[in-house]
Amino acid sequence: MSNSGNIVGGHKANLANPNTSEESKQNSKNILDQEFNGGEIESTGEKNPQNVAGGLKATTKNPNVSQEAKDSAAARLEEMGQ
Q1: What pLDDT is recorded for position 82?
Q2: CA-to-CA separations, 53 to 37, 60, 66, in angstroms, rounded
Q3: What is the pTM of this model?
């Protein structure tokens, strides 16, 4: 099954692309209006905890990140039990 967020994003990109035809843009607009409530998608708002932990671990090892951000990421990891 295709991810509806990716489908909506593709049609929105098509609408913003100056190199696509007006016919293509109208088709994308029709699909967004008819199948995706004008391009509005519902989100659960929940993030994958493993992805969050991975991002925090990367932050702690990134030399381009401030020590304050590293400390904050480390504290959040500790709260998560990582």
Answers
A1: 82
A2: 33, 11, 18
A3: 0.51
